[in-house]
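Homework help board

Subject: predicted structure for assignment chain

Our instructor gave us this sequence and asked us to write out the predicted structure in token form, then describe one feature. I got the tokens but I'm not sure how to describe them. Can anyone check?
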Amino acid sequence: MKLKAFFLRLYWLLDAQLGFNPRTFFRAIKGLPRYLADLRRFRSLYKGPVTFTPCLHDWYEEGGAGKDEYFLQDLMVARMIFEANPEKHVDVGSRVDGFVAHVASFRQIEVFDVRPITAQIPGVEFIRADLMNPVEKKKGWCDSLSCLHALEHFGLGRYGDPIDPRGFEHGLANMSDLLRKDGVFYLSVPIGVERVEFNANHVFDPRVVIRLAAENRLEVTGLTIVSQNGRVEASTLADEALDDLSGQPYNLGIFLFRKKS
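My token output:
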């Protein structure tokens, strides 16, 4: 198990940080003979000009990435917001080309992010802000709030934010301040054996997330788990279930909170 984890980490480092994807490379080598055979047959049937643009690994891919945890969370939470139809929805740091785009397809959405967004996106109002600090004049700003796969990065410097080991605690408190009484908060973070993977992300004990939320008047009302193999299931909030999740290496936890008075 430790050896598998090591190779997965090495693969992530090569692919996401150094720009070399071993899987794509070896699939391209595997696909080269087929490409040459197809090219030879096409040229025997077609006499016009041809530009050589080999795509050597698409034969081995599915028609879409339906098991990716980002894809699943973005789709599920966007559907929840569509059904809830809140008065004002605000997002903090979620993926613009995923979740934010989903929501903007059917309603206005206001986005806070520590990074700049220069594109003019229909349906999206962008405000640059570091949520590790309070947002001025925005208390009780909205009745619906989301932060998907973002809070775990707060304070680690990955996106230009200041180094602060308690950045996620400050972020959670400031996001709670944005919500009105009875407002709904959709939060997703990695959960499992608690640790810091500097400067990528935190992995949180789910019990700690629920406790910190409660300290900020956020009552947990639901928890959905997305496993690394793309399995989605609702979790109970019983101590036994949370204890089990806190001992697993990694899952994505999608928490649903309601703001108390």
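Reply (TA_rk): Your tokens look well-formed. For the description, you could write something like this. Helices lie at 2-17, 22-45, 69-84, 96-104, 167-178, 206-215, 239-246. That's the kind of observation they're looking for.
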